[in-house]
Amino acid sequence: MDYTSGVYGTGNNSYSKSRTNTEQAKEAKKSGQAIDAVYADPKEKQVSVDNFLQLMIAQLKNQDFTNPVDDTQYVTQLAQFATMQQMQELAYHSKSNFMMSLVGKDVTVAKLSYGGKVDKVIAPVEKISFVGNEFKIFVKGKEYNIDQLMEIHGTPTEESSKPQVDPSKYTILPKNKTDKSVELEWPVPTQDELIASKLKYTVYYSTGSAFDTVEEVKSGIRFGESERSGLTKEIITDLEPDTTYFINVIVKDGNGQETVYQKATVATKKKGE
């Protein structure tokens, strides 16, 4: 027995004196330091089912057959591990299904920029990715974490056949006019930012008074391009002097439903006025 080298025993049964683990742990405790010499990665501290099975097999292989191991606890713990694993898989699949269901839905996402300003975006989810064990959503080409999701607006279903706005409650207001032109203005027919962002406007005019439905308005003369976003004013030109015109605007919502305002009746000035 060699006391100086810290090795006990002879032949194949010799073993090293285990001072380092015990004494270093005590010293670390006294100094307030935490030493983890086994697990470099915190994730490795979690015992998996594979780890548990390896421990169980090792104990069974090295048991004393005159006093066999009671396998009741192992069976119970193995059942608990299996149940926990199934619950984790169920939770993952539930979250996956929820995330995938967001694709195509209108959502509100926000990021806190430098200076404390909140950058909010309202748009459909383009795609979902799973990167670094974490779900990411993409809105207008930008990546957002799930905790940056503020609101889910959903997708139209049975409500798709109903118009989202009713501009017939609002009147188109003439502002200025000449002998050949008329300037008009109208309000946005909703206070919902998401719905308003999808509205498209098309301006029509006619000399016929029947100008109160979508079909009647479409039979008139279109001015400018059709289905323009954010349009709330227009100057109609190339009109005839001293002529009464009926003007209306078709509003197309995000569901594709079309409605009209209350028509405006405007008479151009006489030539030369």
From TrEMBL:
Pfam families in the record: FlgD
Domain Fibronectin type-III stretches: 166-271
Region (Disordered): 1-28
Highest taxon, organism lineage: Bacteria
Ranges annotated as biased composition (Polar residues): 10-23
Entry-linked Gene3D superfamilies: Immunoglobulins (2.60.40.10)
Gene Ontology BP term (one): bacterial-type flagellum organization
InterPro entries: FlgD, FN3_dom, FN3_sf, Ig-like_fold
Keyword terms, alphabetized: Bacterial flagellum biogenesis, Cell projection, Cilium, Flagellum
Family affiliation: Belongs to the FlgD family.
Function: Required for flagellar hook formation. May act as a scaffolding protein.
Protein name: Basal-body rod modification protein FlgD
